[in-house]
Predict the 3D structure of the following.
Amino acid sequence: MAAEGALAPQREAGREPGERNAIVVARGVTRTYASGTRALDPVSLTIREGEFLTLLGPSGCGKTTLLNLVAGLDAPTEGTIEWWGAPVPPATGDAHRIGCVFQSPTLMPWARVRANVRLPLDLAGAPRAQSDAAVDAALARVGLDGFAGAFPRELSGGMRMRASIARALVTGPSLVLLDEPFGALDEFSRHRMDDELAAWWRDASLTIAFVTHSIAEAVYLSTRIVVMAARPGRVIADVPVDAPWPRGNAFRASPAFAAQCVALSELVARASEGGHG
């Protein structure tokens, strides 16, 4: 019993303590396809404002499936998802926007970079002057302000991914979802893009949910790592990464980084074997 006169801990209505400051709350979501394949066992996940959350695990563990549910691109078979406390994902014109970046840049090959980046604003009916200013700002943020008139075929793989990220940022989203965006890049380019993504996250006060197969990338970027196992997909561990920011090559070479990579490697190995951690 609390001491007389003491105030009992307060809880947001309808929310568990771990769901405070939540942007997205998934409770007991499953996904079973028409073929009968059960892609996700019941998964509960909270994405909190300002964090860099990474979904890590072997192929087939449901990382992309879960990210698509969070994006509102698919619906769970069972369970519920809330976005900013509402049971429906935000529309393009809402104050709370979600930006998505997929494994492939998915740029329109016939359109120049500026038109590709402006596409979400065109679809939302934004005034041209307003959208042009937003496009200029997004391209400058990702270092492509000198390539607005280029076609995607004229860009390197890293530059095409930057254009895709600019398109996700142009609406001023609160939450950005990235599904293995740097998997096709060489190691040098991937490290550089990781550094840039971390800077964009911090400078713009974004919330990010990120999917990767790379343990080192997950440790380098994340404030929290959710490890998933397959057959069917499920969460087996939720691991905080407490290293200070900004991070750089010194962190990549540190004993703390190596130790966290080893611990996660063991978790992912068990996940690959179908273990429960």
Q: What stands out?
A: Strands lie at 22-32, 38-48, 52-56, 78-83, 98-101, 175-179, 207-212, 224-229, 234-240.
